[in-house]
Amino acid sequence: MKYLKEKYVLSNGVEIPKIGFGTWQIPKGNDAYKATLNALNVGYIHIDTAFAYDNEFDVGRALKDSGLKRENVFITSKLPSHIKDYNGAIKHMDETIKNLSLDYVDLYLIHAPWPWNEIGKDCKEGNLEVWKAIIEYYEKGYFRAIGVSNFNKDDIKYIVDGTGFMPHVNQIKYHIGFDQSETIKYCNENNILVEAYSPLGTGKILNDREIINMANKYNVTPAQLCIKFCIDNNTLPLPKTVNKNRMIENANVDFKISESDLEILNKIQRS
Ligand code: A2P
Fold this sequence. Notes:
Elements: E1 7-9, E2 15-17, E3 21-22, H1 30-42, E4 46-48, H2 56-66, E5 74-79, H3 86-100, E6 105-110, H4 124-140, E7 143-149, H5 153-163, E8 169-173, H6 181-189, E9 193-197, H7 209-218, H8 222-232, E10 236-238, H9 244-251, H10 259-267
Parallel strand pairs: 3-4, 4-5, 5-6, 6-7, 7-8, 8-9, 9-10
Antiparallel strand pairs: 1-2
Adenosine-2'-5'-diphosphate is lined by residues 22, 198-203, 206, 223, 239-243, 246, 249-250.
């Protein structure tokens, strides 16, 4: 399970474990607490949460009860997508830090360029405003790295033009069959690490015949192939599961997809 400990290096020198544990859609309370604690016990040292997931408190509790040293675990959280003003950003950043019971968060992201109930709305000015607040907290040491999520090239360019500050990370939906080559190309050119959420296509691509055939060829499960696909494309997968055996399965990806097979997988289109 070497990829739980192996790290990417962000453009500011901060190291980030190559597989993170995703907590999206894990209900708050005992479910999120138990899943996070299990993940930490299994060996995950990178946990991805968000204010909007409503489970930051449980992630914080699990981290505390795991007995792991704070500096040995990497925690990400996010500013809710509808918060597009400076004061709102400050309020939510403070709340996240409090919810998690932490002195600092390792990575903090703008959750989306638009509110989830108004996808595509032009919020460029609002994004710039909250990006400035996030930079302020980064410079004060509350965050070790900062970035965005669900941003395309133009969304990123706007906040960089307005501040001169390039995000360290862009977290996007990315899995076999879901083409993100344009955004990934831009991020690679600008030294922005791409994180992949829904690397298993929220479970929907695991029955895909082409994926099953390729997984069989490597003697791995479809989930393992999907996760390694992200890593071999230099992105950071954030698989989610509440099942401890699957947590182990998803981390057991110490195999290499050949270049020609990766090319085949990169060409699959499913949405
Ligand atoms: P569960 O939490 O019941 O294990 P994604 O990470 O793309 O969002 O996918 C998450 C979905 O995939 C969840 O429904 C999760 O279910 C399921 N899942 C996670 N890991 C595996 C696995 N190794 N095999 C099959 N399904 C999995």
